[in-house]
Amino acid sequence: MKIVIVGGGTAGWTTAAMIVKHTTDYDITVIDSSKIGIIGAGEGSTGSLPWFIRHPWPDNSVNEIDFLRKTKGTIKLGINFKNWKGDGTNIYSPIHPSETSSEFMDSAFLGAIARHGRGDYSSLHSLLMEDKLGTFKKEGNRIVQVLGNHTYHFDGVEVGKYFKEWCIKRGVKHIDSEVENIKFDENEFLKSIKLSDGQTIDGEFWFDCSGFNKVLMSKTKNKWISYKDNLPTNTAIPFSTDISSKNVRFETEATALDNGWMWKIPLQHRHGCGYVYCDAFTNETKAVDELEKHLGHKVEPIKTIKFESGRYEKIWYNNIVAVGLAGSFLEPLQATSIHISLTSVAQLLLHKLRGDTIYYKDADAYNEGINIIIDDYKDLVQMHYLTKRQDTPFWKFITNELKITDKNKEFIEISKHRLINALDVPVMYGTAGYPIWCHILENAGLYDKEMVLKELHKFGAYNKAMTEMDRLKLFHKRLKLEIINNEEFFKYLKL
Question: Number of folded domains in the chain?
Fold first, then answer.
């Protein structure tokens, strides 16, 4: 079967790599124009990318350290949310949220609230972020991981290059050109495309990985579902700042500002940064002024990016699957883009594409599942904002006028009567999951300490929770003696 991928970058080349990694049944061509630039302002990922990297590759041709070296990457233990309540405090959202959980509640998380007043202290990853440490120790001339489940920061441009090279070596065809015309049949199945170099490319199954351009999907009758009423930010200005291996932290910083928030991502050669804001409350000139005042130095934006959060009604439409920004976009607060891309392709490979057969009858079920994942993250991203801030016009709008999603309304109502538990959160392959939700719900004020203590005693879990806190304290103390500091880790990566 002939598969054509329109668009390169991270979405296109990881899609090709995932297919080649799992099967050799397909003839794959990637249409990727060198005239279309990629913004490599520094990017992060969720736990899905380490799963992709660490899962066995043919000939062991991909490994974690090599990936980090060639993509100028660093370790990511989680996200440090700064000043989201407007009072200067922070809360960590770790990649690996806690060490223990039960069906209904995470005893470590609730124990941390009961003892420390902070649920993020239930995770070793949170504690190590605060210590400015990673997850590796020295063994002779090499380093080994002593704590699992971290993910990565990386230069997005280099990730695309990394998997492009890997794919081409394994027979994936690459055409450097742009799409000029698209031909559908009478049933709106895509038959062929005409390129700017004069070539006509036909295919049986297509992936639209063309980013915001939506080269294929925008030409269909597929409906775009906007999230702008729920996620009002619509502009980003990426920029970079200098970095030193002596002060790097293995975390994404997400700092709430007057009209949105700023990301700061550590790479080996720079910090990738950006301001995500709503242009109804400020403009680029004022946003840059705000950044410079906040950072204490001059900022030079790479460009201005306009966006609208949302998704297509059908990620799989006839014989086209939209991957990455071509199919959905959520502002980058939880680094969901690559996660949703990898999840959508993995589900397609595991359940829908089998040899030379395409099970189009499965498209509805596939779309339903992917939509649940995207909508779950939409709810999660919105919940970050629901902290009742009133200190600027933007935050007054968020608190008083923002349209709250049905799921988040449900969470707010539940929290008035009892603790939110694992059964309240959507659970399927690819959704955020209860432990991740816990920290965001806590930041929004939905875990009252007195109610936590009441329910721990009610379910007979208080002693277990305190035992978990004691065990965590001892484990953390031992880890601090073993783990190398971030400067040493940088030196190893650059060998």
Answer: 1
What would the pLDDT profile of 330-347 be if each residue is shown by its tens digit?
A: 999 988 888 899 888 888
Nearest to 85 by CA among 118, 112, 122: 118
| Burial track 264-287 (b if 16+ CB lie within 10 A, e otherwise) | bbbbbebbbbbbbbbbebbeeeeb
The DSSP line for 426-495 is --STTS--HHHHHHHHHHTT-S-HHHHHHHHHHTT-HHHHHHHHHHHHHHHHHHHHHSPBHHHHHHHHT-
C-alpha Rg value of the chain to the nearest Å: 23
Kindly state the percentage of the chain with pLDDT values over 70.
95
Give the tokens for residue 137: 């120790």
Q: Which domain holds residue 125?
A: 2-455
Q: Please name the residues in contact with 9: beta carbons below 8 A apart, sequence gap of 6 or more.
A: 32, 38, 156, 160, 209, 211, 324
Is residue 483 in some structural domain? no
Mean pLDDT across the chain, nearest whole number? 91
Of 37, 343, 332, nearest to 213 (Cα)? 37
Tokens of 182: 């698209």
Flag whether the pTM goes above 0.90: yes
Indicate whether 492 belongs to any domain.
no
* Numbers of helices and strands, H then E, in the chain: 15, 26
SS3 132: coil
Give tens-digit pLDDT for 98-152: 654 444 567 889 999 999 999 999 989 999 999 988 889 998 888 888 887 789 9
Strands (E), 64-187: 74-76, 78-82, 90-94, 136-139, 142-145, 151-154, 173-175, 179-184
* Band of pLDDT at residue 466, cut at 50, 70 and 90: very high
Report the pLDDT value the prediction gives residue 495, as an integer from 0 to 100.
65
What CATH number does residue 369 fall under? 3.50.50.60
